[in-house]
Amino acid sequence: MRDDFLVFGAPLIGDEEIREVVSSLESGWLGTGPKVARFEADFAAYKGVSEKHVAAVNSCTAALHVSMVASGIGPGDEVITTPLTFAATVNAIVHAGATPVLADVDPLTMNIDPEAVAAAITPRTRAIMPVHFAGRSCDMQSLCALAERHDLMIIEDCAHAIETEYHGRRAGTWGDFGCFSFYVTKNVITGEGGMIVARNDEHIARAKVLALHGMSKDAWRRFSDEGHKHYFVVECGFKYNMMDLQAALGIHQLARVEQNWRLREAIWNRYQEAFADLPASRPAPSEPDTRHAYHLYTLLVGDDAPLSRDEMLDEMTRQSIGVGVHYLSIPEHPYYQERFGWRPEEYPNAMRIGRRTISLPLSPKLSERDIDDVIAATRSCLAPRTAASAAGA
Ligand SMILES: *Cc1c(COP(=O)(O)O)cnc(C)c1O
Fold first, then answer.
1. Which of 97, 206, 340, 376 would be 70's cystine partner, CB 3.0–4.6 Å?
2. Residue from 170, 177, 238 nearest 203 by CA
3. CA–centroid distance, residue 183 to ligand 1 (Å)
4. CATH number of 257-384
5. How is the chain split into domains, by residue range?
């Protein structure tokens, strides 16, 4: 058994990132500036959209919040999202003053089920907020058709989906907005950070103003060598700007996004093969004409497994393998039960997944030995016990 703990989701940081951060520190310009502008341009190029249609912010939560405010969503409006997501997705809807409405997931893809969305639409519905769970694209064709029929916005939570594609188009460019995360465990990291991609000029212009105190265009330049220009506060915005220190990481992380994706794909394929005989469900194959971002590798622990999911979490940790749960369904949490009256049983697919799922390490930083250790530990938890192994042989 390994003695050093394998940290779940540890990022792979290169010398380029380290040098770029040091150069920011030495330059004295730490805050929003030229490196953020470069990271925005690089991200726009990666997504195949105009530089004018992206805005870097300090988290995906901020991106989701600002996207809703920028599109005029607020009190009295309903936004439909998935119960199988991180709390930030739902919290952002609450922060915008709108009412979250849940629609259950498909049990195989673990993504929001368009039929459940259709059933949840009311005259107050303004938007759908799909999450491309684990990096697998949602059924954007059905969701876009629903949005068109009912005149709804689509705000994609792309926290897992930087590399995701669906029918030849990149995730985050199907909806009115795409919101990305560069949190430490995500596929591209800046420590904390996020990005908004918007389809239309007014939306992105307002999002940019809202993300920096509501100050008029390019207010960050007020301390640059162009000299002081007056800015004007045009609405009450938020403090959501990204720093150059963060973008310094992102620029080089993004340059290696495809290389890291291939490393994760290879780990994913190793796991798929190594766990084929275990009493656990592996991720379903990708749908045709889509590209999976391989953000999370999740197993569903079966009824017939020797350990329960929670026992397996403890046992993996005991064997020095960091694991995750993505996610206990949103209605399992007391806040949402009390505020919205939700019960887990009302969203049975998300509930079942949330109670059985375990995420294994999938970082491009994993060494061959790390991967072998994850496989050995997982098999020790889930492989049916033979008489010999039960006797401790
Ligand atoms: C990580 C995550 C977020 C929040 O991202 P931050 O950048 O940490 O704000 C939102 N939604 C999902 C699905 C996530 O996994």
1. 206
2. 177
3. 7
4. 3.90.1150.10
5. 15-255, 257-384
Q: Whose CA is nearest to atom 2 of ligand 1?
A: 159
Q: Which residues line ligand 1 (CB under 6 A)?
A: 59-61, 85-86, 88-89, 131, 157, 159-160, 181, 183, 194
The three-point CA angle 14-15-19 to 5° equals 130
Three-state SS at 109 = coil
In the chain, the percentage of residues whose pLDDT exceeds 70 is 96
Catalytic site residue 208? no
Residue 219: predicted pLDDT: 65
Which fold, 15-255? Aspartate Aminotransferase; domain 2 (3.40.640)
Q: Cα–Cα distance between 47 and 56 in angstroms, integer?
A: 14
Q: How far apart are CA 349 and CA 371, in angstroms?
A: 30
pLDDT digits (tens, 9 = 90+) for 358-379: 999 999 999 999 999 999 999 9
pLDDT exceeds 70 at position 386 = no
- The pTM score is 0.96
